[in-house]
Amino acid sequence: MPLPTFPTLRFADINDGELGALAAWLRDSLATVQGEQARRAAVRDQVLRACLWQMTAAGPDDPRWTPQPWDAARIAAGPNVGRQGFIVRRCPDGCEQVDGQPRWELYIAGGGPVWTCLAREHLRPVAAVRRDDGMGRARCTYDCLCCMGDPRRHLTTAGTPAKTVRSPRMAYDSQVSGEITIDPPLPWAEIRDSGYLPGSAWLNNKTVKLRVVTDEVDTEHGLLLRQQAVGIVPVTEDSYNAHSLVADVQQLIDQFGGGRTFAGRLNGCGDDAGDLWRLEVRDGRAVEVQARIVWPDGSEGV
Length: 302
Known about the structure:
The structure is a single chain. Strand 7 (208-219) and strand 8 (222-234) form a beta hairpin. Residues 129-147 and 157-171 have low confidence and may be disordered. By secondary structure, this protein is of the alpha+beta class. Among the domains are: 72-154, no CATH class; 174-290, no CATH class. The strands form two sheets. The chain has a six-stranded antiparallel beta sheet. A five-stranded antiparallel beta sheet has the order 4-3-2-1-5, with no helix packed on it. It is flat and about 110 Å long. The protein has helices at residues 16-57, 188-191, 245-256; strands spanning 72-75, 84-90, 103-108, 114-119, 123-125, 174-187, 208-219, 222-234, 261-270, 276-282, 285-290. InterPro entries: DUF6205.
């Protein structure tokens, strides 16, 4: 990138106009140099990212690993090579009818999207740190993988399939009911762009939505309609995959919980016998509580 043309100066008898032209040249030259430095830094960053993606894609595989829900993994082939996230589940049987080989769904770290029909040879395990309080159900917006499962827990000897681990909130659908009330209600100005409104929560891949009520308010300008969110309810009355239910409720508490009380609970029932659970709010935290089945003789279990 060429520098600006140096102005014509008479150094023996320089005047204010020529000094101004010199100052303008110095200013323009500085801007040109800074622009070139920024361009080179951008190119260097692009090259570095491309190299890192190629290094990641060429990283070692572990033939002992069979993908399981919550395992951290990355894509090692195709246009999305290098993208990483966690295994959602094994694809339904329809994906396997092409060549008889299983496929998996991968939720990309940092907020999605979900890539489907990924063959095992196109996936690589990624070492991750699993939180002590669960299998990583907190779906955050960071790409550190700290809340995802460690695939090293699912290694077997080569050629021996790993035992399938079913996560109640990931592997299949649940029927969710109930409501968590919000007091005082949330005004429209706070919730209109939240992503949890009844008309947009499902499209935003949320597992809950805000229950919004409309009432009339008598003002000096006449009767006005007011909309407020008074509770948190399941995103649908039908069965659905509620794998991020705790995380979604916690996000609402963190975003709107200041000075408000959250009461009540959400009740869940999975497909497996005895899979009963509740979601409650305790001390500002969304907590999942598993049911205990006790028979008259004192024994427990299904």
